[in-house]
Write a structure and sequence with these properties.
- With 423 residues, this protein is of the alpha/beta class.
- The protein folds into 2 domains: 155 residues, FAD/NAD(P)-binding domain (3-Layer(bba) Sandwich), CATH 3.50.50.60; 209 residues, 3-Layer(bba) Sandwich (FAD/NAD(P)-binding domain).
- 32% of the residues lie in helices and 23% in strands.
- It is built from 11 helices and 24 strands.
- A 5-stranded parallel beta sheet has the order 5-2-1-9-20. A 4-stranded parallel beta sheet has the order 13-12-11-17.
- A hairpin with a 3-residue loop joins strand 15 and strand 16.
- Helix 1 packs parallel to helix 9.
Length: 423
C-alpha cells in the first residue's frame, strides 16, 4: 500500500470533501508522474447525503443516491482503497487502517461526522438516526411497520402511541425530516390504510431553543415554522428529551409523550479518529485549522468539511458543516497542495456566502441567495437544481429526477423490506 519514490497524497473519506478533493487533485496532477493519489473510504460509494431524508420516506430509491467510487474513478489516475481508518500518526506521517498502513507526504482529512449523542438520555439505544443508507432504509421500514401495527390494533390503547412520531432537533436535518414524515404519513400512507383516522397521527418536533433553523435568516426561519405547522407538525420549543422508554419519551422531566418512534438529529460530531488527534479542537471534535485549512504545526496536513473548525476572518463566525462548504474547501485544499508541490505559495481559503436552502417537503422550501429570499415551490425547485448540480453521475441525476416525478404522480414507495433476511 505504498508507492516508493512518489510524492504520496492520501485523502481520507469518501464524502463530499474527500471525493471533490481527490477529483481536483487528479485533474491538476494527472500528467505529473511523480505524484500518487490515494482515496481511502470505508464505503465503495459516494453517498449524496442531502437526499437521505427523502430516501427515509420513500421518495427516492436508496441506490440512486449512491455512486460507486470505482465508477467515478474510471480512467482517472488515483487509487482507491476500501478500508476503515483506525488512527493517524501525524508525527510519523502514517495512517493506520484495517487493511494496513499508508504513508503520506500530503494528507487530506475528510472523514465526515457522526450523530452527536451527548445529550441522549439512558435508553437511547432504541432511537433512530439518519447518517447512512442503512439508516434511511431503517427509518422508512420503521414508519411503515408502525402503520401496519396500528392498522391491526385499531381501538386499542396502543393505537395512538404507534402513530406518534417524535424528531429531536430543529436544525436542517430535523426540520426536513418532520416535513417529509408529515407528507409521507398524511398524503401517502393514509391512502393505503383507510381504516386509520388522520386525527390519530402526530408528528412532533422537539427543539431545545426558541427557534427552528437557528442558523438560517430569522425571516426565513419564521416562514419555515409556519409551513411545517400547516403540515400538521407540533413543535415543542425550549424542550429536550430527558427520559426514554420503550413506549414513551419524557419532555423536560415533566411531560410524558406516548410513542414508539424517536429520530435523533440534534447535531453532529467530527469523526472519532479526528477527535483523538493531539491537536487543538472545538467542542464538536473538529480540528482547528489555519487560514489555508491546514493543521498548525503539521505542514502538508489539511482538514476540511465536517472535520474542520474554520473561523471566517471577516465575520469571526465558524462555518457550519454543510455540503456546499465542503465542496469549496476541497477545491482550495487541492490547489494548495498542487502549489506546494510546484513550489508556489499557497492561498488562504475565503468563504464566499452564496446562500442557504432548506427543503420543507415535496412542494415547498425556504431559500436565501445573497439578498434574495424565496419560499414555496420556487424555492423547492431551486433546492433540487442546486443539489443536483453537485451530485455525481448523470445516471444518478436522471434516476433521482425520475424518482421525484414518479413519486408525485404515483405516490411514494411503501414497501416494507425485511432487512434481517438480507444478511
Amino acid at each position: 500500500m505504498t508507492n516508493s519514490g512518489k510524492i504520496k497524497i492520501v485523502v481520507l473519506g469518501g464524502g463530499f470533501a474527500g471525493v471533490y478533493a481527490t477529483l481536483h487533485l487528479e485533474r491538476a496532477l494527472r500528467k505529473d508522474p511523480r505524484v500518487a493519489i490515494t482515496l481511502v473510504s470505508n464505503d465503495n460509494f459516494f453517498m449524496f447525503t442531502p437526499f437521505l431524508h427523502e430516501v427515509a420516506v420513500g421518495r427516492i430509491e436508496t441506490r440512486h443516491i449512491a455512486y460507486p467510487i470505482r465508477m467515478l474513478r474510471g480512467n482517472r489516475r488515483f487509487d482507491f482503497v476500501l478500508a476503515t481508518v483506525e488512527s493517524i500518526d501525524l508525527a510519523g506521517h502514517t495512517v493506520a487502517t484495517d487493511r494496513g498502513a499508508l504513508s503520506y507526504d500530503y494528507l487530506v482529512i475528510a472523514l465526515g461526522s457522526t450523530t452527536d449523542t451527548s445529550g441522549l438520555p439512558e435508553g437511547g439505544q432504541r432511537v433512530l438516526m439518519l447518517k447512512d443508507l442503512h439508516d434511511g432504509i431503517t427509518v422508512r421500514n420503521h414508519i411503515i411497520r408502525k402503520f401496519e401495527n396500528a392498522d391491526s390494533e385499531r381501538g386499542s390503547t396502543t393505537h395512538s402511541r404507534l402513530l406518534t412520531f417524535v424528531v429531536a432537533g430543529g436544525g436542517y436535518t430535523g426540520v426536513q425530516m418532520v416535513a417529509e414524515i408529515s407528507s409521507f404519513a398524511w398524503k401517502t400512507l393514509l391512502r393505503h390504510y383507510p381504516r386509520i383516522s388522520p386525527d390519530s397521527i402526530r408528528v412532533v418536533l422537539v427543539q431545545e431553543s426558541s427557534r427552528i433553523l437557528s442558523d438560517l435568516d430569522p425571516r426565513l426561519s419564521a416562514i419555515a415554522l409556519k409551513v411545517v405547522r400547516r403540515q400538521g407538525v407540533e413543535i415543542m420549543f425550549n424542550s429536550r428529551i430527558t427520559d426514554l422508554g420503550e413506549t414513551y419519551v419524557r419532555i423536560n422531566g415533566a411531560q410524558t409523550l406516548p410513542t414508539e418512534t424517536v429520530i435523533w438529529s440534534t447535531g453532529v460530531r467530527a469523526s472519532p479518529v479526528v477527535s483523538a488527534l493531539p491537536i487543538a479542537a472545538d467542542e464538536m471534535g473538529r480540528a482547528i485549522v489555519d487560514r489555508y485549512l491546514g493543521l498548525p504545526g503539521y505542514p502538508g496536513v489539511f482538514a476540511i468539511g465536517d472535520n474542520a473548525h474554520f473561523k471566517e476572518p471577516v465575520t469571526g463566525e465558524v462555518l457550519p458543516p454543510r455540503a456546499h462548504i465542503a465542496v469549496r474547501q476541497a477545491k482550495r485544499v487541492a490547489s494548495n497542495i498542487v502549489a506546494s508541490i510546484r513550489g508556489r505559495p499557497q492561498r488562504p481559503y475565503r468563504y464566499k456566502y452564496t446562500g442557504e436552502i432548506v427543503s420543507l417537503g415535496p412542494g415547498s422550501a425556504v431559500a436565501r441567495l445573497y439578498f434574495l429570499r424565496l419560499h414555496g415551490f420556487a424555492a423547492r425547485v431551486l433546492w433540487l437544481v442546486a443539489y443536483l448540480s453537485i451530485m455525481k453521475g448523470y445516471y444518478n441525476r436522471t434516476r433521482v429526477l425520475l424518482d421525484w416525478f414518479l413519486s408525485l404522480v404515483f405516490g411514494r414507495d411503501t414497501t416494507l423490506l425485511r432487512l434481517e433476511r438480507l444478511k
